[in-house]
Fold this protein.
Amino acid sequence: MQKQPLSLALAACLAAGVAGLAPAALADTTIPIAGGATVTEITGTIEVVNKETRQMTIRTPDGHFEVVDIPKEVKRIDGIKIGDKLTATTTEAVLVDLETGRDAGSMGAIGDTKVEPDPGSKPAGTITERLKLYGKVEAVDQANRLVTIRGPEKTVTLTVKDQAILDKLKPGDGVIATYVRSITGKITFQ
C-alpha cells in the first residue's frame, strides 16, 4: 500500500470521483482535523498570446519564460497584447473535516466556480473554484498510524502524523475535504 501524508493527498484521492454526486445525508457531528494553504504569484511581460489554445508566454523579471493558461472564464482575451504586463496570484486551500454519527460516510462531490470580472476595459478579475469531496473511513491502524479512506472511485491509505487526530478516527466515519482555489489576475497595458 502506498502511504501519503494526510492533507492535500486526501483531497486528491477523493477527487477521482467528481461525477457530480452529492452526499445522501448530514452527519451528527463535524470536527475540523487538518488544513493548509499556499499562495503563489507570477508577474512578467507578455511575449506570446495564442487565442486559439488560450495560452500566453510571459517573460518573468529574472528572464525565465513561463506558459500561462488563460482560463475559459476570461472573456476579454482580445484585450491581451504582446508587451502588456501580467500579474496573477493563486491561492489554494484545503480543509479536512471528520464526520461522525448515523449518516456519516456519504460518498460524492459538489463543486462550483464563481467568476468576478473587474469593471473596465482591462482583462482582470477573480475566479474562485470550490470543491467538496466526501469519503468514508474504511480502516484505522493505530500501531502504524495509518487510515484507509474510500472515495467515490478510489481507496487510499494515508499516514496520520497527529495522534490526536488518529484517536478520533474509526471505521464508518465520514471525511470531507474542502478545496478552494482562487486566481486573481490583471493585465497592465503598455
